[in-house]
Design brief:
The complex is a heterodimer of chains A (116) and B (111). Chain A has 116 residues and is mostly beta strands. Chain A is 0% helix and 50% strand. Chain A has strands spanning 4-7, 10-13, 19-25, 31-38, 42-49, 56-57, 64-67, 73-78, 87-94, 106-107, 111-115. Chain A is globular and about 40 Å long. Chain B has 111 residues and is mainly β. Chain B is built from no helices and eleven strands. In chain B, a hairpin with a 5-residue loop joins β4 (31-37) and β5 (43-50). Chain B is globular. The chains are: A mainly beta (116), B mainly beta (111). The A-B interface holds A 4, 31, 40-43, 45, 50, 90, 92, 94, 99-100, 102-110 and B 4, 8, 30-31, 33, 35, 40-45, 48, 50, 88, 92, 94-95, 97-99, 101-104.
């Protein structure tokens, strides 16, 4: 059972290049999220999705775009990479249920991205 | 505003108990979580507590919740070197699905 899988695991880009990070989950979760993790700052939400075909902005969406064409996949795009986007990116997913239902998030192992 | 605060570092000796503390600001949070992150890996759910509880025990882990003070703690009994990791506190807001994470506490276990 794979859970949440992120590809690639590592990537180095030059400023101005573009790339797409892929997240796939096999748990039939409705909700999916993209975070970035920077030293001393914990996790910051970039974008999220509450279902196939929907996306919404999180806390730090600038410079990123996302798509959720299939329920199991959530893509994060950088159109023109900047050094400030050097970070570790985590994808997560959770069930959709009643508002009082426990909804812990399940995380992938991260993508380490360096922008030179 | 929404904020979850944790101290950044904790160092303990192997065999001692570790206590990691967290404060949160939203009294409407329904669930409070502890996640563990080992080097090079994602966050893994360690344990959680429902807001109408004040304590939960799970083997070596004890979670205490003080809703009046908005204070959450995680106690790890008989701490082992394998417990060295970053521990994240998180609160779940049922109104908007959102989970707010703290910055994480890095636990060092000395042999």
């Amino acid at each position: 059972n794979a859970g949440v899988t992120q590809t690639p695991k590592f990537r180095v880009l030059k400023t101005g290049q573009s790339m797409t990070l892929l997240c796939a989950q096999d748990m039939n979760h409705e909700y999916m999220y993209w975070y970035r993790q920077d030293p001393g700052m914990g996790l910051r939400l970039i974008h999220y999705s509450v279902g196939e075909g929907t996306t919404a902005k999180g806390e730090v969406p600038d410079g990123y775009n996302v798509s959720r064409l299939k329920k199991q996949n959530f893509l994060l795009g950088l159109e023109s990479a900047a050094p400030s986007q050097t970070s570790v990116y985590f994808c997560a997913s959770s069930y959709s249920a009643g508002s009082n239902t426990n909804q812990p998030q399940h995380f992938g192992d991260g993508t380490r991205l360096s922008i030179l | 505003g929404e904020d979850v605060e944790q101290s950044l570092f904790l160092s303990v000796r192997e065999g001692d108990s570790s206590v990691i503390n967290c404060t949160y600001t939203d009294s409407s949070s329904t669930y409070l979580y502890w996640y563990k992150q080992e080097p090079g890996a994602g966050l893994q759910l360690l344990t959680y507590i429902f807001s109408n509880m004040d304590m939960k025990q799970d083997q070596r882990l004890t979670v205490l919740l003080n809703k009046k003070d908005k204070h959450l703690s995680l106690r790890i009994a008989d701490t082992q070197t394998g417990d060295s990791a970053i521990y994240f506190c998180a609160e779940y807001h049922t109104g908007g699905f959102k989970t707010i994470f703290g910055a994480g506490t890095r636990l060092f276990v000395k042999a």
